[in-house]
Design a protein that fits this description.
Helix content: 25-40%
Order of helices and strands: HEEEEEEEEEEE
Largest sheet: 7 strands, antiparallel
Radius of gyration: 27 Å
Structural class: alpha+beta
Distance between the termini: 100 Å
Length: 201
Amino acid sequence: MQKGFTLVEILVSVALFSVVMLVALGALLMLSTATRKATSINTALDNLSAGVESMSRTLRTGLNFNCGLASVSSNPVPVNCVNGATSIAFYAADGSKVSYCLGVLSGSNYVCNSTGNILLRNISTAGVASGWIPLTTPEIKITNLKFYVEGACSAGGITGCTPDTIQPKITMLISGTYQVTTNQTSEFHLQSSVVQRIYDQ
């Protein structure tokens, strides 16, 4: 008498194998989706962190902070800003004029606009401006950007700027969303404070 599997046993085995494979495939797809989301999140936040860090480094050794001045064609005059503004201009350590603002893409150029959603930078060296350059990627939409300046008048002798003894400090508040998937976004809220550090030359 020959021994073997019956048709019922084979069908049951195939059914169990199919169920196990479906569960394993579902878990694999979920893991793949989670990995893609994590990668998207890390990329977006790394880009935002790089932009904020770049701003912080330049602000830390800057002079004549003017909260609310977005034009690099104007000489930044120190102004305290307790109510916050969506732009700031100042002199960098190398003497160039630097401006940061919230802006939009208008045609083929970026322009400052308080209702925009892109972090922009402009550097003017020897009277020549670089033009507004985005510091954030399209995946990041900034909904709120505020610069607060204290101690800008510590040098004294500045018209319209009451002298104080506070070390110049800039506080940045940034809020917005970043794209996780084509149909999903997530919010972020950042606060960073930078205290002026003028090094001996």
